[in-house]
Amino acid sequence: MSDMFDDRRKALEDDYFRRRDQETLDKMRDELAAELTAKNLAEGAMNCPRCDGGKLSEITHDGVKIDRCNNCGGVWLDAGELEQLTKGGGDAAGNWLTRLWAGSADNK
Question: How does residue 23 score in pLDDT terms, banded at 50, 70 and 90?
């Protein structure tokens, strides 16, 4: 009879340590994920959605901060940045559009 209770006690003890180990592993994984996220935010580098090999860095163009890929040279705008670039001020918007169309006309 005592053998049955010893087996039950051992099973409960094993279950307790298994749950405790799982909680410890989950906590360590969460800490590692938070550390990696903080590291990526500190570096300020996001992966380029186009080429996947480059990192986006923030540059200022006509007073608006935009993201540019260091690998493919792609430019990425956040919400509202295109409007800021085109509004600018009467001449600023015209200059920006003129530079855009002049650049594409030169490539032809």
Answer: very high
Of residues 58, 82, 80, the one with CA closest to residue 68: 58
Measured in whole angstroms, how far is the alpha carbon of residue 61 from the centre of its chain? 22
Closest-CA residue to 95 (of 106, 85, 104): 85
Q: Beta strands of 1-108 (E only): which ranges? A: 46-47, 55-61, 64-69, 75-76
| Contacts by residues 20-25 (CB-CB < 8 Å, ≥ 24 positions apart) | none
The pLDDT, as a whole number, for residue 67 is 84
pLDDT at 108 over 50: no
Main-chain dihedrals φ then ψ at residue 10, nearest 5 degrees: -65, -40
pLDDT above 70 (res 28): yes
